[in-house]
Amino acid sequence: MKLTIVKALISKEVKQIKRDASSVLVAFILPMIVLLIFGYGVSFNIENIKMELVNLDSGTMSNKITDLYASSKYFNINKAATTEDAQERVESGESQGIIIIPEHFSKKFIHGLYGMQTNQRPIRGSLPEIQIISDGTDPNTAAYIEAYASGMFYQYCASLNKTKPQILSVNNRLWFNSTTESINFLMSGALTMILSIVGTFLTALVVAKEWERGTMEALIATPVSIWEIIISKIVPYFVLCIFSLVFSLLYGILVFNVPFQGSILALTLVATVFITVSILIGLIISTTAKDQFVASMGAMVVTFLPTFMLSGFVFEIKSMPLWLQCLTVIFPAKYFVSSIRTLCLVGDVWSIILENTAILSAMAVFLMYSLKKKLRKNIE
Q: Could you count the other beta carbons within 10 Å of the beta carbon of residue 161?
């Protein structure tokens, strides 16, 4: 392998990337769009849920409970006059649930509070209760409504019972993502998706275009070795991916205040191997398809969809069926999502970083061998 030939081929690839405006758009504009979507459009922080509140009691305590829900950031309360009115709004999709405060609620509440303070045994049917109805067509939001509404009610009741000695205290702490912001969790998947698009999708399209135009066959026909072709294809897109990664990470940190607890060394180590794997996948897809449409569909099926569905980015892998968990081990995105999430939220956990890097390195070696074998067949 001659270094001068490699430099000349890399120079050709760089010039080709500069002439193709789509390459620059995909490398820099697309990451910004993806981060904006995940930063503002995609969120697991459930707030301002539209709810109907029906207060059938006119007592002091029922009014306080009404104010409690109305002042919550989790609910956007609309006070309905009757249960039927609230039901109509839920059926029409204007609201996602109903909170009903029944008649004689204040009387039962005061009686129940007095009983707790004097250790009297509560009379059956005399305990205060509210009814929480949620729209089950969206199970996740329904679960949040039940948890938030019930938790607020129980917490308020407990805060009033201060005369009873406290025998148990729970100190809750949330590690690694104390602000519970969704973007901190989603950043790892967004970076993985961006590198998959730039590394695999863009590479597959550009190289497939060369096969369509016949320039790839002309290059193979020259006295250039297989390794010189492979390296000249990898290096320019590798550098492009690095710039895209740095740009995306800085954009996430500066605009969305995404934390980064790890080191540049650990990030460089795992990102280098993952980017190499992504580019090799793109080269194999383009070499096999030799058509831009087929290559784009192949890149989407092999990288984009698994990154979104089977990498642990959105759906927890451990909650999947066993056969699907076994299937996820063949997708590189799984290991990069785990690594980048650890680096952003936890820090340099080398047991995770090194294990994921080793698996990605093994994938890179296998893909490199497969690509070399595929190109050799095309030459023959």
A: 12
Task: Return the closest-CA partner of residue 296 out of 206, 185, 378.
Answer: 206
The last residue of one of the domains, among 105, 129, 160, is 160
Q: How far apart are CA 264 and CA 273, in angstroms?
A: 14
Each residue's pLDDT tens digit, 335-377:
999 999 899 888 899 999 999 999 999 999 999 988 888 776 4
Instruction: Verify that 120 and 194 share a domain, yes or no.
Output: no
Residues 194 and 282 in one domain: yes
In this predicted structure, the answer to whether residue 21 has a pLDDT above a threshold of 60 is yes
In a domain, 155, yes or no: yes
Are 204 and 152 within one domain? no
Complete DSSP assignment for 270-305? HHHHHHHHHHHHHHHHHHHH-SHHHHHHHHIIIIIH
Taking only the tens place, the pLDDT of each residue in 75-96 is 899 988 888 898 888 888 888 8
Tokens found for residue 374:
């595929």
How far, in Å, CA of 205 to CA of 35, rounded?
23
HSE of 322 in the Cβ direction (CA atoms, 13 Å)?
Answer: 0
SS3 content of the chain, % helix, strand, coil (to 5): 70, 5, 25
> What is the CATH classification number for the domain harbouring 141?
3.40.190
